[in-house]
TrEMBL record:
TM segment ranges: 20-38
Protein keywords: Membrane, Transmembrane, Transmembrane helix
Protein name (record): Flp pilus assembly protein, pilin Flp
Superkingdom of origin: Bacteria
Claim: Membrane is one of the keywords in the record: yes
Source species of the chain: Lentibacter algarum
Length: 62
C-alpha cells in the first residue's frame, strides 16, 4: 500500500491535465468577456444609428 501511495504522489501526468483545464477555463472566460463587450458596443452603435436616421431630414434640392 505504501508503494502505491508513493507512486501516486510522484506521478506527474495528471498535473498537465489540471494545467490545461485551468488554461482553457481562463481562455473561455476571456472570450465571454470580449463577447459581452462587443455585444454591448454594437447594440449602442445600432441604436445611435437608428436615432440619427430617424431625425435625418434629406435635402430635397430646393
Amino acid at each position: 500500500m505504501e508503494t502505491f501511495f508513493q507512486k501516486f504522489v510522484s506521478e506527474e501526468k495528471g498535473a498537465v491535465t489540471v494545467d490545461w483545464v485551468v488554461l482553457v477555463a481562463g481562455v473561455l472566460s476571456l472570450c465571454a468577456a470580449v463577447f459581452g463587450a462587443v455585444q454591448t458596443g454594437t447594440t449602442e452603435l445600432t441604436d445611435g444609428t437608428g436615432e440619427y436616421l430617424e431625425s435625418y431630414e434629406p435635402f430635397d434640392g430646393v
